[in-house]
Amino acid sequence: MKGDAEMKVIVDLCVVPIGVGVSVSKYVAECQKVLQEAGLSHQLHAYGTNIEGDWDDVFAAIKRCHERVHAIGAPRITTTIKVGTRTDRDQSMQDKIDSVNELRSS
């Protein structure tokens, strides 16, 4: 990393509230609101959410997701996080998707 540059990160986040029954959509929606409020680029998928941004901003938002999900009634949360960083070049979530789709199309 050069100087004081921010470390960019792409995260795959799966927040699972426990003790709330089988439907968790309202908790996922609340976490999506947190990410929107934080101004982070994110994409919901069937079993989680991809998020990209500055390391500190992303992890602060993940903490707020936990705080909000607890606040609306989840007594317990288990979270799975996959984290990717790179220093050789900038790469967005969409760049990664486009790269695979280009190879698939050829």
Automatic annotation (TrEMBL):
Residue ranges of every copy of the Thiamine-binding protein domain listed in the record: 11-100
Coiled coil: none
PANTHER family xrefs: UPF0045 PROTEIN ECM15
Family: Belongs to the UPF0045 family.
InterPro entries linked to this entry: MTH1187/YkoF-like, Thiamine_BP, UPF0045_domain
Superkingdom of this protein's organism: Bacteria
SUPFAM superfamilies, A to Z: MTH1187/YkoF-like (SSF89957)
Region (Disordered): 85-106
Cellular component terms (Gene Ontology): cytosol
Species the sequence originates in: Rhodopirellula maiorica SM1
Protein name per the record: Protein containing DUF77
